[in-house]
Amino acid sequence: MSRAFVFLADxxxxxxxxxxxxxxxRGGVDLKVVSVSGDNVVDSAQGIPVVAEYLLKEVPVxxxxxxxxxxxxxEDIRRDDIMIFPGGMPGTQNLADCKPxxxxxxxxxxxxxxxxxxxxxxxxxxxxxPLDEAVRKNGSMRMTCYEGFEPALKAKGVTVIDQxxxxxxxxxxxxxxxxxxxxxxxxxxxxxxxxxxLARETRTQLML
Length: 208
Description:
Protein name: DJ-1/PfpI family protein
Organism: Candidatus Merdivivens pullicola
InterPro entries: Class_I_gatase-like, DJ-1/PfpI, Prot/Nucl_acid_deglycase
Pfam families: DJ-1_PfpI (PF01965)
Oligomer: single chain
Domain DJ-1/PfpI: 3-191
Low-confidence stretches: none
Strand order of the largest sheet: 6-5-2-1-7-8-12-11
Largest sheet: 8 strands, mixed
Number of strands: 12
Mean pLDDT: 95
């Protein structure tokens, strides 16, 4: 069974992370929320602390609130899993600056694994993928992101879709433009991991 890994760094956008987590939990996805900040308690850009159940093994650990910490090694991530990157600043930059995480993202995508990012994360995180190679191979690639974070994507030949479109899926990449589309982002990931019917059922339960 495929699993979802959501990576949090200090300064993440609370709506983008938690709405995505909520949709996946509702859909029964095997989900792991992983802190890359060295502590289980990760502070959002809005100053709201969130407790991540796992610490990233490859990152130095600070004094944690838990005595018996659980760790996720990047080696635990399999080809059929999905790596998810919320936006928000400076959280997205903190994710992008985590070299072990970025190296794993590149190898995961290179092996055919799925990645998903929202808001600033397509521009700062996913732009580190060899997107220009994908564009040359397939003729085009479509993504979206928060306004102002397009340049790194366009530099690799990516067609950046109007942010009002919300969520864009192209190959093994799912992107969304911002917090207003976080629920749809989570539902799209759910549809890909499970099926469209479950995503529609979850949407109906939310009265959307």
